[in-house]
Amino acid sequence: MPMLKTFLSAVKKLNNKDLIVFDLDGTLAPSKSPMDKEMSELLKELLKVKKIAVIGGGKYGLFQFQLLVCLKVPTALFHNLFLFPTTATTFYRYKNGWKTVYSHKLSLKEVAKIKSTFNRVFKEIGYEHPKKIYGELIENRGTQVSFSVYGQDIVATLGQKGIRLKEEWKNKHTPTKMKIAKLMQKYLPEFEVRAAGFTTIDVTKKGIDKAYGLHQIEKHIHVPIKRMVFIGDAIFPGGNDYAVTKTGVDNIPVDGPEDTKKIIKEILKVA
Fold first, then answer.
1. Is the Cα dihedral 133, 157, 24, 100 positive or negative?
2. Residue 94 pairs with which residues in a beta bridge?
3. Residues 52-62, buried b or exposed e (16+ Cβ, 10 A)?
4. How many whole angstroms separate alpha carbon 118 and alpha carbon 183?
5. Where are the chain's structural domains?
6. What single DSSP character describes residue 29?
């Protein structure tokens, strides 16, 4: 649990925060899996006293599957919840249903360039894909193009075994993933490239990352960054949560959902 004890003592000082921002995959829920009942109950209690934003690399369908379907709350509480799928390239808020506030779509030409650059990098470094692939390796998510080592559907197909395979790959091959991401950024300076999750690399339009998402919260929800706190499992150089540090937001790194639960419980004590 990275620096968890330090931050659990500091969290008591966060009762002046109006909005809690969470990463989704690896922070609120296991990789591409639904959050559990305990997390749902904790978020329900938190929504009663704080605004919550969730920023993740997954598309809106995954937000529905991992978060919304599991979150059993009165409709009125959805007005305190704000969703930023595909690394804040889209924004949804609740107004008689979940409505799109903005969506920064990639053109077909941009998508084709990103996909061809992935293949260029794979060839350049001699990268070999796993023998067994589950779904698309490189997915066009509309506002984001995402490469996943085992394909997009490994968890949907294999469940816990799929998560274990992803974790094993991450533990052995993260330097390879970072090398691919670094070369992608070199060849695509007009885009943003980030290592995400256990086995994923995301590419979006330039200037759109989780820091962008925090600024959109300021703009649309009228909560200044100094009154937010960000909680995520990839707040390290090269991680897809690291961009938030550019904003100066208070942040708490976690190792997974169990760490997140402990922090939410501490926040509820002082809320």
1. positive
2. 98
3. bbbbbbbbbeb
4. 9
5. 4-104+208-270, 108-205
6. B
* Lookup: tokens for 258: 């169990």
Helix or strand run (H / E) with residue 46: helix 37-47
Q: Are the C-beta atoms of residues 115 and 145 closer than 8 Å to each other? A: yes
- CATH number given to 4-104+208-270: 3.40.50.1000
Q: Report the percent of the chain where pLDDT is more than 70.
A: 95
- Residue 92, token pair as written in the block: 């949804």
Q: What is the pTM of this model?
A: 0.88
* 1 — pLDDT class (breaks 50, 70, 90): very low
| Locus of tokens 């249903």 | 97
Q: How far apart are CA 49 and CA 28, in angstroms?
A: 18
The tens digit of pLDDT for each residue in 56-92 reads: 989 999 999 999 999 999 999 999 999 999 999 999 9
Pick the CATH number of 108-205 from 3.30.1240.20, 1.10.10.60, 3.30.43.10, 3.40.50.300: 3.30.1240.20
**DSSP state letters, 122-182:** HHHHT----SS--S-SEEE-SS-EEEETT-TTHHHHHTHHHHHHHHHHHHHHHHHHHHHHH
Model pLDDT for residues 172-231, shown as the tens digit of each residue: 999 999 999 999 999 999 999 988 878 999 999 999 999 999 999 999 999 999 999 999
Are 202 and 145 within 8 A, CB to CB? yes
